[in-house]
Amino acid sequence: MTDPIFILSVGVLIVVGGIIGLKLHPFLALLLGAFVVALMTPATVIEQFALAKGTAPAAALALSKKGIGERIATEFGNTCAKIGILIAMAAIIGKCMLESGAAERIIRSVLRLTGIDKAPAAFLVSSFFLGIPVFFDTVLFLMIPLAKAMTLRIGKNYLLLVLCIMAGAAMANSLVPPAPGPLFLIGEMHIPIGLMMIAGTIVGLFTITAGYFFALWANKKWPIELRDSLDAKLEDLKSIAAKETKHLPGLGVSLLPVLIPIVFICADTFLSNLFKPGETQSPFLSNLIAVVKFFGDKNIAIVTGGIAALLLLASQKKDNKEGLTPFVQAALMSGGGIILITAAGGAFGGMLQQTGISARIADMTKEYQMALIPMAFFIAAVVRTAQGSATVALITASGILSGMANNANLEFHPVYLGLAIGCGSKLVPWMNDAGFWIICKLSNLTEKEALKTISPLLVVMGLTGLVVIMIGAKLFPLV
């Protein structure tokens, strides 16, 4: 009854059965799943979990003595701390860009450059390269409003555009530093950052190509129309789409809400890698780094982008007597629901982690007699599916395999093991994954639609990556 695998199975049954079978709201199903998982987890297991993470013995004991409600609320709050401001401001940016006509202006420019047929491919490649310096969820927040505007412009392919955005952002997040997971992985496995960036980009381009072909197939098999939502009424979007280009904001101004967060976050990432803490710099350079670091914080960067979006909307709605309040209210109503569901998913995933599921999986696979590359892939995939976090899967799998990666008798460079872990961490996103809920609610896909399109998309890309990595290790061992 206390076996982590059994507790995981019960949690899965409650969440999936509650949402799909009993038609419960995801927020309620996830909280119920978190409560049952927490109730089934013994205090000694929670203490061991905390100690394994490096928590001080006194703090680990205190955690194990906390009540179920407090532990769930803590994980709920931790998830809110990570994504609350991001989602709220991203909802405002998306609403402002749609209502001001900025998204429509960007889409018209993209279509002139690529043509209608190549628009999905442009979304795919853009989201991949955006996903390298920018957090995965930030890419979704910035790109989904553009997908809605693009769908209205071309009249079709909404699911294809959403899947292209998801494919690009997800693979960059797990393969190419400076994303957090790959950064930890290369440190643990002693892989040069430049090599990981180059190899991750190459493998990533193969995987997103496979993802693109899957997206084309899924779009034909399950075409999904753009739907009404609180923050993006179709009637309003259609009226904007009918405007002449001269009545829309300029392209440079339209791009500002998207470019400001990206530029600040990229600049912070670049300077952080270029100058290590403690190094002596000139006063000018020190001040520049301090300013970039301040604005490069993901929350401050997105707030700055939100201010630009609000100013853009204000300039387009000068004659509106009610001001910006109705638009912001609609955006926050939509964003608030996403925050609640995502945080509940974080609480459920947090309770699963406290069962010791990662350690159990590590123990089950330590004697696994497979080739190292598929084994690395398999361990990361099982951990990701079990507890929902790609970053935790990367950390767990790299911890298990770091000793093998530094083995002098290894027939290929450890970068291939790192890439295999990155691809494995994509399998399988479902209801214990905060990213699953973000993409569901931003795109207005139902849970069923997401499970049969987004989940298989990442499986296809992960498996493609495994094949490419094994071929690369055989043909170009780099040792």
Automatic annotation (TrEMBL):
**What family classification does the UniProt entry report for this protein?**
Belongs to the GntP permease family.
Q: Carries keyword Ligase?
A: no
**Which species does this protein come from?**
Runella rosea
Q: Where in the cell is it found?
A: Cell membrane
What membrane topology is annotated for this entry? Multi-pass membrane protein
The identity of this protein, by name, is GntP family permease
Which residue ranges run through the membrane? Answer: 6-22, 27-46, 121-146, 158-176, 196-217, 253-275, 327-348, 368-386, 457-476
Q: Does the keyword Transmembrane helix apply?
A: yes
Q: Which GO terms describe its molecular function?
A: gluconate transmembrane transporter activity
Concerning PANTHER family, the annotation shows: GNT FAMILY GLUCONATE TRANSPORTER, HIGH-AFFINITY GLUCONATE TRANSPORTER
Question: Can you list the GO cellular component terms from the UniProt entry?
Answer: plasma membrane
Which keywords accompany this UniProt record?
Answer: Cell membrane, Membrane, Transmembrane, Transmembrane helix, Transport
The record's section on InterPro entries has:
Glcn_transporter
